TrEMBL record:
Signal peptide: none annotated. It holds the Pfam family SCP2_Rv3818. Residues 462-522 form the Rieske domain. Keywords: 2Fe-2S, Iron, Iron-sulfur, Metal-binding. It comes from the Bacteria. InterPro entries: RibonucZ/Hydroxyglut_hydro, Rieske_2Fe-2S, Rieske_2Fe-2S_sf, SCP2_Rv3818. SUPFAM superfamilies: ISP domain, Metallo-hydrolase/oxidoreductase. This is Rieske 2Fe-2S iron-sulfur protein.
């Protein structure tokens, strides 16, 4: 099995029975904020796109690059579709001209022509990607590969049961806006960023240890930030709170926990994988490339500057009445929402900065009141500040997912009172009836579920599954004092009370070993 690195989470897998191109991303994403690094735009995409099969893990725009897919990927390719709850991915592929689809069933192995086998595991909670994320398992002639990309399964047992894995591709770096955009003192940002950076690595080590593959390939990040306004997000300033460590940092950190089987794929690197080993060649020495990272970024910044400026020029739509359009689009969704609206629990304020950089229009999405209206000087728990032009553009193109556009762009600032509230972001990911109805149904089903199995961690008996997204706490749970942390997503719980310290709701059932009852023992997810 030959794997060619094509940048970020992208790779081409070649076997004698067929080829698979995965997650090709080249064009800037999220309001021209994210670019692939190392740069992959100069690869021979005409050749790379001439494949038998195409797999895109999910609809995040650093995985689903519509312009690139339309121009460079053969329309003769069969698209391997994860079993997602909505038809959005297939619909988008059809709009790009793809006509051949293999609709997989979740976690079922499919044998393709010539003995090539694949299996796709789909994750379908409202917080998994843009309503869905997935991983691809591939086997040919005894060689097995898992392309986990940036999916976060609760465990990898489904893949391990299919046989020993020889190549494991997975994310290790950040792909979020927290904590950089929050209006916090720099010391607090650094502390929170350091915690997140450490959790990212801890989660990666657990996945690696679960699968015990022969070779580990760090992929799916980090992006680079080439706009001058976002340049500080690149991990080139010796900032221990930066959440975007690169592949060379991965190798160094992996070595600290005893990892010796890491392989970096630069764009153009080729790894020949067999049951007995892997031989990898690179277009340039990996160590030399990352030693010159700043120079590479500066060269990219100048080369990509015209692209960024052209994108910025397209965002303004002064003809859009923002308040009127927000009312028209969002108020019907607020009327339909039960769980998400209750979960948000209050008004969310948007401060829209005008073209002059000074004037501000403040608009509130009032979840209890089920309306969008001008801000009335009331207290709000969540506030976002961004350029009016960005919201104009979202409304102009009918964007149904503000998380997969505005928020991931990091072109905003945020402030909140109290805990993180996942329902805020879940709602703004679901600005269509189809998405909202799915999210409401998912929360309805999972809020009613009772996790009856208990496990013991240290001095505490707790329910086995994390109330957040059902991670197995026997593997991901760590107890320190009276607090439990689920390392899959970093959520924390106060065990004596059962209260979630990370977000609203999501109580955990727990009591000290040997005690019959406790305050939280009968607490169910709320």
């Amino acid at each position: 099995m030959r794997v060619t690195g094509t940048g970020h989470a992208s790779m081409r897998i070649d076997t004698a029975a067929g080829s698979i191109l995965c997650d090709p991303w080249v064009n800037p994403a999220y309001f021209a904020s994210w670019f692939p690094f190392p740069d992959n735009s100069q690869l021979d995409w005409e050749a790379l796109g001439d494949v038998d099969y195409l797999y895109v893990s999910h609809l995040h725009r650093d995985h689903f690059d519509a312009a690139h897919l339309k121009r460079y990927v053969s329309k003769k390719a069969t698209v391997l579709l994860p079993e997602f709850p909505t038809s959005e991915m297939e619909d988008e592929f059809r709009e790009l001209g793809f006509t051949k689809f293999l609709k997989t069933r979740n976690e079922e192995v499919v044998e393709l022509n010539g003995g090539l086998k694949i299996m796709i595991q789909a994750l379908t909670s409202p917080t998994d990607g843009p309503i869905g994320d997935s991983s691809l398992w591939v086997e040919y002639d005894g060689v097995r590969l898992l392309n986990q990309n940036d999916a976060r399964p609760t465990d990898l047992s489904t893949f391990a049961e299919l046989g020993h894995v020889h190549a494991h591709m997975l994310q290790f770096s950040g792909a979020i806006w927290y904590p950089m955009v929050y209006e916090l003192p720099q010391a607090a940002k650094t502390a929170f960023g350091k915690q997140k950076r450490e959790r990212q690595f801890d989660r990666t080590w657990r996945y690696i240890d679960d699968l015990k593959a022969d070779h580990v390939f760090p992929i799916a990040g980090p992006p680079c930030f080439l706009d001058d306004e976002l340049w500080q997000f690149n991990d080139i300033f010796d900032d221990e709170g930066n959440i975007f460590p690169d592949q060379s940092v991965f190798l160094a950190e992996y070595a600290k926990v005893g990892g010796t089987n890491g392989i970096v794929l630069l764009p153009g690197s080729v790894s020949e994988i067999t049951t007995s080993g892997a031989t990898t060649t690179h277009p340039v020495p990996v160590e030399e490339f990352f030693a010159n990272k700043v120079a590479h970024l500066e060269e990219m910044r100048e080369r990509k500057r015209p692209i960024i400026e052209a994108e910025k020029a397209s965002w303004r739509h002064p003809e859009v009445d923002v308040l009127k359009e927000l009312k028209r689009r969002i108020e019907p969704l607020l009327d339909e929402s039960i769980y998400l609206a209750k979960g948000v629990g209050g008004p969310v304020r948007f401060d829209l900065v005008g073209y002059d950089g000074e004037s501000v229009e403040s608009i509130v999405v009032d979840f209890p009141g089920k309306q969008v209206r001008p801000y009335a000087d009331e207290k709000v728990r969540y506030r976002f500040r961004t350029e009016r032009a960005l919201v104009e553009h979202l409304l102009h193109i009918g964007e149904v997912d503000w998380v997969n556009s505005l928020f991931l762009s990091c072109r905003f600032s945020a402030a909140r009172i109290g805990q993180y509230n996942e329902f805020v972001y879940a709602f703004f990911k679901c600005l269509s009836t189809e998405r909202l109805q799915y999210a409401e149904g998912w929360y309805d089903e999972h809020e009613r579920a009772v996790d009856a199995e208990d496990i013991t961690i240290g001095d505490w008996t707790v329910q086995r599954r994390c109330p957040h997204l059902k991670a197995d706490l026997s593997r991901f749970g760590i107890v320190e004092g009276d607090q439990l942390t689920c390392q899959l997503h970093g959520w924390r719980f106060d065990l004596p009370s059962g209260r979630c310290l990370t977000s609203v709701g999501h109580k955990i059932r727990a009591h000290r070993v040997g005690e019959e009852t406790s305050v939280s023992e009968t607490a169910q997810p709320s």
